[in-house]
Amino acid sequence: GIEFVGEAILTQDSVLQYSGRVAMFTTFADLKSWTIRCDNELRYRLWRFVGLTIQLQMIYDATQSTRLQYKQGAMISFFAEP
């Protein structure tokens, strides 16, 4: 098959970080049908020991569904620093 992948990481100070990944895949047998996956993550440090992470994952796979599938999540993180 053929796969194209792009990744990006953006950081602003130590407070805000974004990471994203886009992947597109197809097989040689069916070049008209592409599977596209996009993963996004945003990390925000609220205070010195507490952070917030927001994730969004989007998938388009015509063999599973003709609609865009997505999954989202949010997490609170606690940091242990010396």
Concise structural overview:
The protein is mostly beta strands. Helices cover about 0% and strands about 65% of the residues.
Element layout with pairings:
Layout: E1 2-12, E2 16-26, E3 35-45, E4 50-61, E5 69-78
Would you give an account of this structure?
The protein is an all-beta fold and 82 residues long. Helices cover 0% and strands 67% of the residues. The chain contains no helices and five strands. It has strands spanning 2-12, 16-26, 35-45, 50-61, 69-78. It has a five-stranded antiparallel beta sheet, with no helix packed on it. A hairpin with a 3-residue loop joins strand 1 and strand 2 (16-26). It is elongated and about 50 Å long. The model has no long low-confidence stretch (mean pLDDT 91).
